[in-house]
Design goal:
576 residues, alpha/beta, 8-stranded antiparallel sheet, 19 helices, 17 strands, 18% strand
């Protein structure tokens, strides 16, 4: 109804805009007393706007429609009273309609635009107070970035800025630093001072961004601050300042850059010499006293949630996942060791569902990303996961996502979802798909309930992609290929990583990661094995008979097409 009202109101505005396009400008009379008076031969039904103003009025009306509809949609998402803002927008639309007849068109068009811009500017601070920092709009940081872009487009750089950036880039990656409120703390072209803790922070995070790291670990050690980068799932050493400099740098992060009272302490960086990339840096502190250490997680501003086709599933596997999500009831378990992409896969699965035809709720610890129109909740220490889940299940819920299954009660609720016509999607930290039944039984579920309630088990790994710029050909003995089930006659060579890497991959030899999967939908015979708690090896043989392609065979396909190496595939499959 609200959208219909917005559309109807702005149609009236457009109708007013077109009311006078045909007959030209008939003029206005403004008496000396300042009141408005139409000429004698002009009525409200006459065309009083020259035709060449019509495109401007239509554009202004379309802009108004977009602003009011965006406010209505956004207010519903963040929990603000959308009806009040819609009424305000319709009021402006009505006033705009009158302005077509009262003001000259050269004044009416800017007035309409200014009115809708003012509406948006009044709304934005209220919605910003309701959302986390990365989802805020038109903050001081954004205004500063816009100013820099305009100056760059108009070639209005300050004297010597580009030369200064080029000089600094030879010493370290130039970084513009912003605190949690969006205030600029240090410009990218600021002087390089090794004794300044701000400079140390910029060196650490700038090097992490250059090397494509997703996470930085800062651990105090004897005589120095140990800095490690998590790059494509593997830890690498970073620049390690001495203990005094490291302590000062971590103090700057905690007291200057982030708001410690915030639920998500984070600051922001921008790298003008690396394609002007921007990152949010989320800060987590662990331990107490002298044993405290810090984890910084980098998320790219331009990074969007992966879709199901982007996960690397084979066409048949993707079709199987989609049909499972459309029709399955019971438990779909995604199995992988930590940091192997299970959350990304689950988020992509949820994103493929229609949130308007199915009521979707998630329980996560912590919430790692936003999914439109999905009710995302966090497990808290104040209440048991089973009690939180039980409260939701009393309502009309179609799909439930669990980032973990912590105990027998939660496992039982997930496994009995089929009897309630509900689909549960849960992550289990186990080695592969065939280890899922044993894990659920270890949590306290009965083998019979696992056999009845487990619909699908998806095992997955992430393997690092070889850097295309520095990968090297490698010969593999025929005996090794035969042992892997590959005909040596069809393989000239495989590829492997460079030991020294290159600048493009940050000297690691790898650039990005790709997923490998195994999907098991137990047959009736396999469910009998689960019900009698058969060992994993027996379940694996049954899964292969059911048509499952194992992780090893999925990974070998990537080895043969040059995406990854045999050494990397072995590392990923053995990860536990």
């Amino acid at each position: 109804m609200t959208r219909a009202a917005i559309f109807a109101g702005l149609l009236l505005l457009l109708a007013g805009a077109s009311a006078g396009a045909a007959q030209g400008d008939l003029g206005y009379t403004v008496p000396t007393d300042g009141t408005f008076q139409l000429p004698d031969d002009v009525t409200w039904n006459h065309n009083i706007i020259a035709w060449w103003w019509l495109p401007g009025l239509v554009a202004a009306s379309g802009f108004g429609l977009w602003v009011v509809q965006w406010i209505d949609d956004d207010a519903r998402r963040v929990g603000l009273p959308s009806a009040s803002w819609t009424c305000a927008g319709l009021g402006i639309a009505g006033a705009s309609l009158l302005s077509f007849f009262i003001l000259p068109p050269w004044l009416a068009v800017p007035a309409i635009l200014a009115a809708f811009v003012a509406l948006a500017l009044n709304y934005i601070p209220l919605r910003n107070a309701k959302v986390i920092a990365p989802r805020r709009l038109f903050t001081p940081e954004h205004r500063e970035a816009l100013k820099r872009r305009v100056m760059s487009a108009l070639d209005l750089h300050g004297p010597g800025v580009e030369k200064r950036l080029a000089k600094l880039s030879k010493e370290h990656v130039p970084v513009a630093l912003y605190d949690q409120s969006g205030r600029a703390v240090s410009a990218a072209e600021a002087s390089f001072d090794p004794s300044d803790p701000i400079t140390i922070v910029k060196v650490i995070v700038g090097e992490a961004a250059r090397r494509h790291a997703r996470e930085i670990q800062l651990v105090p050690g004897p005589g120095q601050l140990s800095v490690s980068y998590l790059i494509d799932g593997v830890m690498h050493a970073g620049p390690s300042p001495d203990a005094v400099q490291g302590s000062a740098a971590t103090l700057v992060i905690r007291q200057t850059l982030v708001n410690a009272a915030s639920e998500t302490p984070q600051f922001r960086i921008q790298l003008p010499t690396l394609g002007r990339k921007s990152f949010n840096v989320r800060v987590c502190v662990y331990g107490e006293g002298d044993a405290q250490w810090m984890k910084l997680r980098l998320s790219n501003d331009g990074e969007s949630m992966r879709k199901l086709p982007q996960l690397g599933l084979a066409p048949a596997e993707e079709a199987l996942v989609r049909s499972t999500l459309d029709s399955a009831r019971g438990l779909v378990a995604v199995a992988s060791p930590a940091a192997m992409g299970a959350h990304t896969t689950i988020y992509a699965m949820l994103d493929s569902l229609d949130p308007f035809s199915r009521n979707i709720v998630t329980f996560e610890r912590p919430i790692l990303g936003h999914i439109d129109s999905v009710d995302q909740r966090a497990f808290t220490d104040a209440r048991s996961p089973a009690d939180s889940l039980d409260e939701v299940l009393r309502k009309e819920v179609d799909v439930v996502m669990l980032s973990e299954i912590p105990d027998a009660r939660v496992a039982d609720m997930a496994l009995t979802g089929a009897s309630r016509e509900q689909l549960f999607i849960a992550r289990l930290e186990v080695h592969d798909a065939c280890a899922v039944p044993a894990r659920l039984i270890a949590l306290g579920a009965t083998p019979e309930s696992v056999a009845a309630g487990l619909h699908t088990a998806i095992g997955q790994r992430l393997v690092r992609r070889l850097c295309p710029a520095c990968r090297q050909k490698a010969a593999v003995p025929a005996a090794v290929l035969q042992k892997l089930g590959i005909n040596p006659a069809g393989v000239e060579c495989v590829w492997e990583e460079s030991s020294s890497g290159c600048d493009q991959c940050g000297q690691t030899g790898f650039l990005g990661r790709a997923g490998i999967f195994e999907i098991w939908q137990p047959s009736a015979a396999s469910r009998k094995l689960i019900a009698r708690n058969a060992p994993a090896a027996e379940l694996h043989a049954a899964a292969l008979r059911d048509g499952m392609t194992s992780l090893q065979h999925s990974g070998l396909a990537l080895v043969l097409d040059g995406t990854t190496s045999l050494r990397e595939l072995a590392r990923a499959i053995k990860a536990n």
